[in-house]
Amino acid sequence: MRKFKGVITSVFTVGLIMGLGACSGDTDEAAVKKETQEEKVNEALAAEGEKVVKSSCTGCHGIDLTGDLGPNLHNLSLSKEEIIELLIKGRKTMPPGTANGMEEEVAEYLLTLK
């Protein structure tokens, strides 16, 4: 009977390890796929945002966005949400509504600037 319990325990342990290993592999693969899809969406948003920035922001922030009348827009320490709020509400000499409903796209683009 003891020998039989040891075999059952071993089989159960091996099965549990294999089952958990299979599950974790699927989860990692799904997470990587989801992350890749999100990056594609972000790239698409950033591309749209770049168009808005080039037509609306370069007059004050300079052609290369490193600053002129307005501040440098590279390496911003603001979050995406803070940038969106700033674009909607404006701040100091920056007028509100300069992104014309494309705030998320502009924020995505600005966050890519290094």
Name some characteristics of this structure.
mainly alpha, Cytochrome Bc1 Complex, Chain D, domain 2, 114 residues, single chain
Share in β-strands: under 5%
Mean pLDDT: 81
Output the number of helix runs. Answer: 4
List the helices and strands in order.
HHHH
What do we call the CATH topology? Cytochrome Bc1 Complex, Chain D, domain 2
Termini, distance in Å? Answer: 68 Å
Catalogue the unreliable spans: none
- The secondary structure category is mainly alpha
The Rg value, from CA coordinates, equals 25 Å
Count of spatially separate domains: 1
Domain Cytochrome c: 44-114
Organism: Ureibacillus suwonensis
InterPro entries: Cyt_c-like_dom, Cyt_c-like_dom_sf, Cytochrome_c550/c551-like
Keywords: Electron transport, Heme, Iron, Metal-binding, Transport
